[in-house]
Protein: N-acetyltransferase domain-containing protein
Amino acid sequence: MLPPSSLVQPRTWRRKDEKTPDDSDFFISTDPKLISIKAVNDACSMDFLYWAKPFPDEILKQIIAGSLCFGVYKHSPQIPDNDTQAGENNKSVNDSEMDDQNAPKDPRSVEQVGFARLITDTVTFAYLTDVYILPAYQSYGLGSWLVECIAETLSASNMPYMRRVMLVAEGGKKEGFYANMLGVQAIGKEERPEMGKSFVILGRRGGVPSKMRAAA
Structure:
């Protein structure tokens, strides 16, 4: 049985904004080769991801291999990891090998600043979880862009046989955010007294309407 990451052709999204030129340094990709196990585990150890905890590396690799993952990346200088690369200390992402969609093939040339994953069979069901943008990058609008890319992936034009899209989010502002972005609605509640929080189970039947992508 092939993992979801091998069933969907990897995609890369790039964004440019004249008002914030630095946005051109960011991209989102579903290429599993770019996912940093260390970056995801480091984020899961931070307080802002209060619902998550780090996993042993091999377990996290298994989790990621069984999911369709979206990484949010910022171009950064390559850092060599052995003496054979000593002459490339100053090599930037612009010098590294790129694929046809202008995403770097070498994970060392980028910094992972966000993540999301879909637990999915890539045909009929998708559960969105582990969505985050590192606090230092939350002022760039990357969270909305990330969910917009997920919405495009889950649209009827890309997954025409989708039966159900689901996720769990805090009530209030976050519930409204996902409702606008993905067209989901509350179908249940989950109380987490150990966290002092209430969560809403959100879902929709069928794929995400294309019009929802403009709601960010």
The helical segments are 4-7, 37-44, 57-65, 142-153, 173-182. The domain at 4-154 is CATH 3.40.630.30 (Aminopeptidase).
